[in-house]
Amino acid sequence: MSHISNPLPILDGAEKVTGRLRYLDDMQFEGMAHAQLVFSTLAHGRIIALDTARAMAVPGVLAVFHHGNTPDNRYNSTIWFEEQEAPEDERMFPQVVRHVGDRVAAVVAETPRIARRAAGLIRVEYDILPAVIDPALALDGSAGPDGLAEEVRFDYGDTDRAFEAADLIVDTTVSTPRTHHGAIENHSCVAIPQPDGRILLHSPCQSVHAVQVVCARALGVPASQVRAVMSPIGGSFGGKAEPVLEPLCAHFALALNRPVGLSFDRGETFTATRTRSGARGRVRTAVTGDGRILARQTDVVSDIGAYCTGGHFLPGSMSQRLCRLYDVESQRFRGRAALTNTVPSGAYRGYGSPQIHAISEINLDLTARRLGMDPVAFRLKNLIDPYAVDPVTGGDIGNARIRECAQEGAARFGWQQRRDRDRSTGRLRRGIGMACATHINGCFPGFHEATTATLAVRNDGRLDLTCALHDLGCGSNTVLAQIIAEVLQVAPADVVFSAVDTDICDYDLGTRASRMTYICGEAVRRTSESLKAVLRSTASLEFNCETTDLCFDSGQVICAGQGREMTYSELAAHAARRHLFLTATETYRATANPGSFAAHFAEVEVDTLTGVARVVDYLAAHDLGRSINRQLVSGQIHGGIQMGIGFGLLEDIGLDPDTGKMKGDRFSRYHMVNAPEMPKVEIVLVERSEPTGPFGAKAVGELATIPVAPAIVNAVNDALNTELTCLPLAPERIAEAAR
Fold first, then answer.
1. Would you say 599 and 621 are in contact if contact means Cβ atoms under 8 Å apart?
2. Cis ω for the linkage preceding 445 (within 30 of 0)
3. Average pLDDT of adjacent 10-residue blocks, the chain of 739 residues
4. Which residue(s) pair with 452 in the sheet?
5. Taking the model in full, what pTM does it have?
6. In CATH terms, are 278-441+593-738 and 444-589 the same topology?
7. 444-589, what's its fold?
8. Which CATH homologous superfamily contains domain 31-129+191-263?
């Protein structure tokens, strides 16, 4: 292999670190006006009066928009194809606001400063309505019929009989916090009316086709009337999977017939976009005396906030992740998504996996403790084998190598030696913990899981890829360039990516569900092979030789028998004279959804006086089939660990239980793990090729953060001999438990 597994630096890295890469807020559009939103200060209330006169009197104000003069079309911001059905409870501007930070009005003015000043002059009068902040209260019937957004039940095997036969039943309740993505780039959008009556949207999004269909529904127009183009994205982690600003921006621009930009500041991005849903789960695990899991019963409630968005998918998503990691004969699952008067939730790196794994892996550690078993040995006794059947979908889980992750990871971490050492009983105490996890590779067998790619040879010999692929800043375009380079024997830097644009790219789901490398990478690999066949057949005409006599090297087609060679640019020129074009298009439809797997190991030091827990050593063992770019894999895992430590120890938006107001609404109030707080991280890659992936590759990006929090919580409990289960383990919680 010439390019696969090479630690190639990210292709646009130099542009980013030098500031040459222009993000949407760096771009200037002629004649652009600027919008500023007015947000609800109540968790629940009906707008009964809206005074906009003083705002409209400010010089430079162009318009004020609100529920009385904007479309009342209902939509769901999480849809991503035209025929998709989902609960439609969002409006551009609702008359009944449902959370602090809900949209009340917008001022559009000549400058951002004028818009902000005028927005502050708008006066709103509310009829205050009862607010439900606690998801448990939302589900008990007192909050009305809309408290339950979705319920999923899943049951296989004879669970009741298995519990009767158990030697031990461990009952645990675990809660996880509402967390925010913290991407460097805030949310923004620019909308530009087109001469043909359409609207053009520039958006740092995860799916241009989702932007297109959501905006079309909100505007009440055909999707063909909306064109979406992806701008460079400064991080997302799921936060930009849903078009939050785009429907508003599109309407403003169409109404005023001029470009309009809308950008959030950091506080607005916290309080008026999306978060990871909080969850509370009760798990009852039935085991034999020697550590065999007989059955599990899980009941999870997810707090999805004020609007459904994609919250109705969460219970089903959690059930699938839960059931494809351990070989459990009987399981009963109940998952509910609760609507509350809080900021809406949405996708956030793992989409339900971090929550359900925290719930299940903490329970398993406590089960191992009560059995008197080593946590690694307990898991090894129950982990699934390669090609086991997924009880939810009925398909197999692929070449699953979670056992090797646990075994090799424990050995490299020195798990047994650390467990055997003497334990401190002083102020500073150390403990170790581990957790296993799995995640999906795409959306198969549902949701239009297919990618279309077109690859063409430019006149200068470079390769132009046209595909609705969204690099979120993590280097996925670099990985795709390496796949193309491997097939066609060019330098990855010679691959050019056309704009991600609904006018030129065939439909694609976008970047979600860990599908970029596994699904889109395979589509690109197959397209590259098709283009290679085109190059071979075209070159055989030029050389007047058999196609089998040709080989490829360094951007050239070589006929060894004749001692002749031709660069791709030369071949393109010759082909043009024959009215031939060096291009290929392939649509790849997924046929499988294997699991990616990981086992993570953590050592913590806990200060029993202050309650501060510090991660001092960490090892992550990952089954990713095969790494396309080891440097980017390492970056994904390091970043995932940073997020996971925050999820386990620090991060929580902190909703006020009485008002629903977010406490952690800016970085100064929302505590994240910074570089000095990161531990030494060792990475073990278990590379056992996945037959259905490009060059054997599977996903790593979302999985990297999933087992981190439970591994750390388990380590803290090991250090203190406690049973802490409420995340994050903030210092006050740890100090109280230590006392």
1. yes
2. yes
3. 90 94 96 98 98 98 98 96 94 98 98 98 97 93 74 96 98 98 97 98 98 98 98 96 98 98 98 98 98 98 96 94 96 97 97 98 98 98 97 93 98 97 92 98 89 96 96 94 97 96 96 95 98 96 93 94 93 90 96 97 98 98 97 97 98 96 96 95 98 97 98 98 97 94
4. 587
5. 0.96
6. yes
7. Aldehyde Oxidoreductase; domain 4 (3.30.365)
8. Aldehyde oxidase/xanthine dehydrogenase, a/b hammerhead (3.90.1170.50)
